[in-house]
């Protein structure tokens, strides 16, 4: 079981691992806090991207620079220390060489190439604690869910986001769509963009809406973490609006969702946010390449207009695409309607119901 000081240290390690300056993408985000025998914090460190020191090595180096002895200290880390030599040495060995006596780990490493740190530490007689509070374990899992998805599936995690009315419309009959939802939902979209390394739209959205695809704070200032801005399609792609400080642009000259994801994965993307129109969303759904849907549902009706999702090639109810409701959260806007955010996961297979 964790001591109170270790719980606080783990919360801090998760906080620094998620620092906005840390890039998303092909490397996991990791934080480490070193504690003395009396529970006092000695040093902290975090991984800052490919080729930089791992969190444990960063924390150890900071402690050494201050002349702090580490024999018998506790290392609290968000991810299992690695046991392999890549651009940097194995973190498990670095902890052993420093004289660390106890290691608290929030999540085991799913990467077969890097895992094994727990076994190495225990074999050396180090006390390894894996029993952490559920909320902190969940936060550690959420921190790198795109990275872990990439390890399992060799493609980015895909979240499709759309705003729609109660009758499933994404735009009115005259094409107007701003704004279906209120300020709270729009603010959530900007926050969501900071958790994804790529925002992807189709040529139609890029041409008609000219979206900036930036992540902004509530005061309108650009967030320090900006996603890659991607447009996919075989037709001529207009340049997205130039915004100083925005993420880079990339054109994916394909209409094939699998090919688009493969190219983004090769570029280091591990979490893609679909913000395109009904055609793009339907293409990814038909291909079975949507892992999560986030629907911002406005309490309003249009009766006609563009649907939120285009044709899914479903001709009979038995072939419908069933979704699992993961979360439903009201999004009240001062002086405006209360939208509803639905988070859903497609089920592997359709579920038949008795007549």
From TrEMBL:
<feature type="domain" description="CMP/dCMP-type deaminase">
    <location>
        <begin position="5"/>
        <end position="129"/>
    </location>
</feature>
<dbReference type="GO" id="GO:0008835">
    <property type="term" value="F:diaminohydroxyphosphoribosylaminopyrimidine deaminase activity"/>
</dbReference>
<dbReference type="Pfam" id="PF00383">
    <property type="entry name" value="dCMP_cyt_deam_1"/>
</dbReference>
<keyword id="KW-0521">NADP</keyword>
<dbReference type="InterPro" id="IPR002734">
    <property type="entry name" value="RibDG_C"/>
</dbReference>
<feature type="region of interest" description="Disordered">
    <location>
        <begin position="329"/>
        <end position="355"/>
    </location>
</feature>
<comment type="pathway">
    <text>Cofactor biosynthesis; riboflavin biosynthesis; 5-amino-6-(D-ribitylamino)uracil from GTP: step 3/4.</text>
</comment>
<dbReference type="InterPro" id="IPR002125">
    <property type="entry name" value="CMP_dCMP_dom"/>
</dbReference>
<feature type="active site" description="Proton donor">
    <location>
        <position position="56"/>
    </location>
</feature>
<feature type="binding site">
    <location>
        <position position="193"/>
    </location>
    <ligand>
        <name>substrate</name>
    </ligand>
</feature>
<keyword id="KW-0862">Zinc</keyword>
<dbReference type="InterPro" id="IPR024072">
    <property type="entry name" value="DHFR-like_dom_sf"/>
</dbReference>
<dbReference type="InterPro" id="IPR050765">
    <property type="entry name" value="Riboflavin_Biosynth_HTPR"/>
</dbReference>
<dbReference type="GO" id="GO:0008703">
    <property type="term" value="F:5-amino-6-(5-phosphoribosylamino)uracil reductase activity"/>
</dbReference>
<dbReference type="InterPro" id="IPR004794">
    <property type="entry name" value="Eubact_RibD"/>
</dbReference>
<feature type="binding site">
    <location>
        <position position="275"/>
    </location>
    <ligand>
        <name>substrate</name>
    </ligand>
</feature>
<dbReference type="GO" id="GO:0009231">
    <property type="term" value="P:riboflavin biosynthetic process"/>
</dbReference>
<keyword id="KW-0479">Metal-binding</keyword>
<comment type="pathway">
    <text>Cofactor biosynthesis; riboflavin biosynthesis; 5-amino-6-(D-ribitylamino)uracil from GTP: step 2/4.</text>
</comment>
<keyword id="KW-0378">Hydrolase</keyword>
<feature type="binding site">
    <location>
        <position position="209"/>
    </location>
    <ligand>
        <name>NADP(+)</name>
    </ligand>
</feature>
<feature type="binding site">
    <location>
        <position position="54"/>
    </location>
    <ligand>
        <name>Zn(2+)</name>
    </ligand>
</feature>
<comment type="similarity">
    <text>In the C-terminal section; belongs to the HTP reductase family.</text>
</comment>
<keyword id="KW-0686">Riboflavin biosynthesis</keyword>
<dbReference type="InterPro" id="IPR016193">
    <property type="entry name" value="Cytidine_deaminase-like"/>
</dbReference>
<dbReference type="InterPro" id="IPR016192">
    <property type="entry name" value="APOBEC/CMP_deaminase_Zn-bd"/>
</dbReference>
<feature type="binding site">
    <location>
        <position position="177"/>
    </location>
    <ligand>
        <name>substrate</name>
    </ligand>
</feature>
<protein>
    <recommendedName>
        <fullName>Riboflavin biosynthesis protein RibD</fullName>
        <ecNumber>3.5.4.26</ecNumber>
        <ecNumber>1.1.1.193</ecNumber>
    </recommendedName>
</protein>
<dbReference type="GO" id="GO:0008270">
    <property type="term" value="F:zinc ion binding"/>
</dbReference>
<feature type="binding site">
    <location>
        <position position="234"/>
    </location>
    <ligand>
        <name>NADP(+)</name>
    </ligand>
</feature>
<feature type="binding site">
    <location>
        <position position="213"/>
    </location>
    <ligand>
        <name>substrate</name>
    </ligand>
</feature>
<keyword id="KW-0560">Oxidoreductase</keyword>
<feature type="binding site">
    <location>
        <position position="216"/>
    </location>
    <ligand>
        <name>substrate</name>
    </ligand>
</feature>
<dbReference type="Pfam" id="PF01872">
    <property type="entry name" value="RibD_C"/>
</dbReference>
<comment type="similarity">
    <text>In the N-terminal section; belongs to the cytidine and deoxycytidylate deaminase family.</text>
</comment>
<feature type="binding site">
    <location>
        <begin position="277"/>
        <end position="283"/>
    </location>
    <ligand>
        <name>NADP(+)</name>
    </ligand>
</feature>
<feature type="binding site">
    <location>
        <position position="163"/>
    </location>
    <ligand>
        <name>NADP(+)</name>
    </ligand>
</feature>
<feature type="binding site">
    <location>
        <position position="205"/>
    </location>
    <ligand>
        <name>NADP(+)</name>
    </ligand>
</feature>
<feature type="binding site">
    <location>
        <position position="179"/>
    </location>
    <ligand>
        <name>NADP(+)</name>
    </ligand>
</feature>
<comment type="function">
    <text>Converts 2,5-diamino-6-(ribosylamino)-4(3h)-pyrimidinone 5'-phosphate into 5-amino-6-(ribosylamino)-2,4(1h,3h)-pyrimidinedione 5'-phosphate.</text>
</comment>
<keyword id="KW-0511">Multifunctional enzyme</keyword>
<feature type="binding site">
    <location>
        <position position="91"/>
    </location>
    <ligand>
        <name>Zn(2+)</name>
    </ligand>
</feature>
